[in-house]
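Researcher: Let's run the pair from yesterday's discussion. Sequence first, then tokens, for each.
Model: Starting with the first of the pair.
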Amino acid sequence: MGRNRELGESVGVERKIKITRQNPKFAMGYRFNPSIMPEKDSTQTPAVESKTASSSTAESIKSFVAGGVGGIAAVLVGHPFDLTKTRLQTAPPGAYKGAVDVVKQALARDGATGLYRGVVPPLLGVTPIFAVSFWAYDTAKALIYAATPHRKSKELSVAEYAAAGFLSAIPATLVTAPVERAKVLLQVQGQSGSGTQYKGVFDVVKHLYAEGGLRSVYRGSVATIARDGPGSAAYFAAYEVIKGMMTPAGSKDLNLGAVIFAGGMAGVAMWSIAIPPDVLKSRIQSAPTGTYSGFLDCARKTIAADGVGALWKGLGPAMARAFPANAATFLGVEASKKFMEKYF
């Protein structure tokens, strides 16, 4: 009986050693017992752990940098559309006949540069916003994999992609809310003949902080989460699913057609559901202090004054922007990731 037990322990050690050598990733999650493991293997574990941690850090940095590159691409392509959308959402009734009229008035008043009014805040802010968003998305996916060690498929489900997308919006809002607050105020100034109130993004932040501290700077955060949570869920899920359908199985090459189309459709999917909370966010962030007591109060007053249709103001420019801006975003992200994988 004693000999059988010793034999069993010996076989157990052999099996553990075999598993460790064949699948180092499995070994990382295996709970080793130092009393039965050979000394050599136990001394190798910290090295494996160190290598894995280093690899994880490198991947996080790549996700962060790639997201920033994608953000810059999105701003350069999409800002004129975004300015048009914001002005339609915040202007008093009758100020514009439509999106084309917004563009005409902007060009007549400020020339071509008028379409890029307020571009500095998103360039300064969208870069870290997208960097944080794509880093948080990849981190959320890693957490989902870690929470489901016995999963049958390496691919995440649509629901899991959506969950990772929703989670990515939470840390991103810490950067998004103040940046969008400054951007909106710069975009709407002068549209009602009120003249120029702010000299630039830093002047906006200085005035907001003097007016009400961080509470004023972060006004509209709830509306931002209401927009970006569900929006990011649809955004990332749509991209992953469409790109997966268009990419040959097992291919590791950058499929430009798949990336551009999937990225564009991801933007369309996001803005299809994000416009109503975006309208409320823009109104809350551009209105004088005390106009609205919160997100729901803004929704109630907006519907009472302008009808339910007001919640869809700016849909045209948002959709016109959605495809090209987000195609550029994902192209920037994927191309920069490939570049970093090749040279770093």
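Model: Moving on to the second of the pair.
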Amino acid sequence: MFSRSVNNECLRFLLVVCVFLPCIAAETPGCTLVNKDSKSEKALLEGLHDLKGETFTVEDRVDSKLKNVYEIGVCASVNKSAPQVGAIQHVIGEKVNQTVVLGQLNSTTLLGAPGWTLVTYRNGDRYNGSCNNSSREVQFAVICSPNEHHGTLHIASSGRAGETACTFLFVISSSVVCTKEKHEQHHRGLSGGAVFCILFFTVAGSYLLLGFLYKRIVVGAKGLEQIPNYSFWKDCGNLQADGCNYICRCQCDSADEHRSYRDIDDRPLRPDEDRDDQLLTM
């Protein structure tokens, strides 16, 4: 009897899960593209993956008085009672407030390029006496901002009185749509040249300081002799000039004629009698 009751409870639990699972899935919809075969739109939609499920809210004030409140979800519903609603407008009246649907998630189109993506929700509530009684639609552009991930929602055009546009346009700043090169450039540290300069001056400074202390304290040198390897640095210019003359000017054959010094073996020999005369005492 006990085993039968356990089995019955398990069956009831499975039935409940099977019944409510579609409801749970229906309450968490995503964006449904109008052009389902568009590979470019699918790629743009995949690029917004880190923002999916996020909702944004912005207030519209006129003369410091609240007139409208807009809610937009990135492939997420902003109305629990209507899972397909992607954007709504709360019109704040003096006596009565009104909620207007601006766009549906199941009518999504995308357009974009490196650094920005424009998302459009269509099939909102129809206008009454304006815009040819067409359905409302909302657009929000996600633009690259390396310093922001979630970002904030800003109003670009709300279609209110005095504006001729029939489309609601918003802007969201986020690092999600930043290209890889810009993102790496922003987070990149010191360049190779800067690292080389730092290492060079560090090594050169250490060489001069430690060499100076050694020559001063250990060797007891004074004056210019305190410079490390002073004789080498003194002749460095002449050595470079000789190397440049040998490699670049190709004057190695006639170098003996123009040298300012001569070896002992290079001097012309005197006649034998002259050398013998030098040995005689005067």
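Researcher: Give me one sentence on the second I can quote.
Model: The radius of gyration is 42 Å.
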